[in-house]
Amino acid sequence: MTVPADVLDYLTDEEAAELDALLTPPIRPWLERVSPGFRWDWPHLVIVEDALDAVTVGDITKLMVFEPPRHGKTELTTIRYPVFRLVQDPSLSVIVAAYNHALASKFSRKSRALARQVGLALNDERQAAEDWETTAGGGIRAVGVGTGVTGTGGGLIIIDDPVKSREEAESPTYRDRCWEWWQDDLRTRREPGAATILQVTRWHEDDLAGRILNSEEGKDWTVISLPALAEENDPLGRAAGAALCPERYDVAALAEIQRGMTDYSWSALYQQRPRRRSGNMFPRDMVLTVDAAPAGITWVRFWDKAGTDKGGDWTAGVKLGIARDGVVYVADVRHEQRAASARRLMMRATAEQDGGDCAIGIEQEGGSAGKDAAADDARLLAGFRVTSEHPTGDKVTRAEPFAAQWQAGNVRLVKGAWNPVYLDEMEGFPHAAHDDQVDASSGAYKLALGGDTGLLDYYRDEAAIRAAAAAHQKVA
Fold it and tell me: CA 319 → CA 204, 293, 305, 374, 445, distances in Å?
């Protein structure tokens, strides 16, 4: 609410600003009135609501909020706060940004529905989900990373999670693109006195939040960082280890989530402390060796191929299975430098030794040559259940699911001469000279879970196992 002009004549600038702040209502009573089905009094939301009130009156102009996934930051800040501001000032221009245009438009659509609910007068000629306007000329424009916003100014700019995946977070190219978009498109759209809010789940130390904080402008930002589990000097005053919102995710639920993630990902996504990779995604002391795997495991072997007989990369074939209790067993690793013809003979001989009930996965290179090679492999391994898969994403991202099991102590190695070399390469990833065994392990774990073809579900059927074995015997 703006101080009336006739009152300003009797006040100093400082007095006018103080009065304006007193006349501006806090957001929480409004939230409780327009969205009574939500809880707005949880401490992790209250601290953000207080910061938003400071943004509203101009005490904060640059705000960062770091929270774990699914804790309500979007519903509060991205969807409702712009409407609250438009109720106070229908001429305010708002830019809402997300990692792509579709998601930003979804947020804007929800805001538009709320604007109609609270009775904001909207311009009949401009009500598209991605770009709607009030009759006073304000409104919301939704944009995705990389989308230009030329011709649009923003009195309020909200950026909600500009990164959507681990693959994007690990990509220097994407991080550069996001930074250039912020520098050249969004940052230049700020109107005089504009406020900018960046709310994210942290992915990487060099994500957009990290780059801004490490820039000259970083000192100008107010940061609220809310880890899933409280740490020292917690902004909410929680005891160490307390959950951020136990009504939604208590300590036990968070522990279950953490068990399925690497320390690297947990530290970033849930604790908001992204860090450099240590090169120790597969710590040697977290894996056990056993004399034999238990009976009843469905096995797969995945091949990461190379065609060089001297020097260069190695061909690696990892045999892996998951027991009924969820423990992952690595039973055998073939790891050799061979020419293409010798490699093919090794793959066929290994398939014969593994037997017909062991599913086979092979990494397929891109392009027509990769498809031709996959067809050759299928002919070579006739009589066995074979699938070829073209990998997507970087090697580190593909290794994350298996690394999570490894770090949780859920991986066992069957004793064999291959153990030391395998452990050396796994422990050195991603900085070691070779990563063929890591790639093969990641592919095998994905295949054991079902991969893209559902092999695990197929082989869990005992009748199917017997049929596959019988078919193999006929071919042999």
Answer: 32, 12, 14, 19, 9
pTM above 0.70, yes or no: no
* Burial of residue 139 (number of CB atoms within 10 Å: 0-12, 13-18, 19+): buried
Pick the CATH number of 284-475 from 3.30.930.10, 3.40.800.20, 3.30.420.280, 3.40.718.10: 3.30.420.280
Please give the distance of CA 133 from its chain centroid, rounded to a whole number. 33
What Å distances lie between residue 339 and 56, 229, 272, 344, 425, CA to CA? Answer: 68, 52, 47, 9, 22
Residues, the chain, total?
A: 476
> Which residues lie across from 288 on neighbouring strands?
412
373-413, pLDDT tens digit by residue? 778 888 888 889 898 888 777 888 899 999 999 999 999 99
* HSE-CB of 173 using CA atoms within 13 angstroms: 3
Asked whether the beta carbons of 97 and 112 are under 8 A apart, the reply is no
Element (H, E) at 419: helix 419-428
Domain 5-269, CATH homologous superfamily name and number: P-loop containing nucleotide triphosphate hydrolases (3.40.50.300)
Residue 80 neighbours by CB under 8 Å, 6+ apart: 27, 31, 34, 35, 111, 114
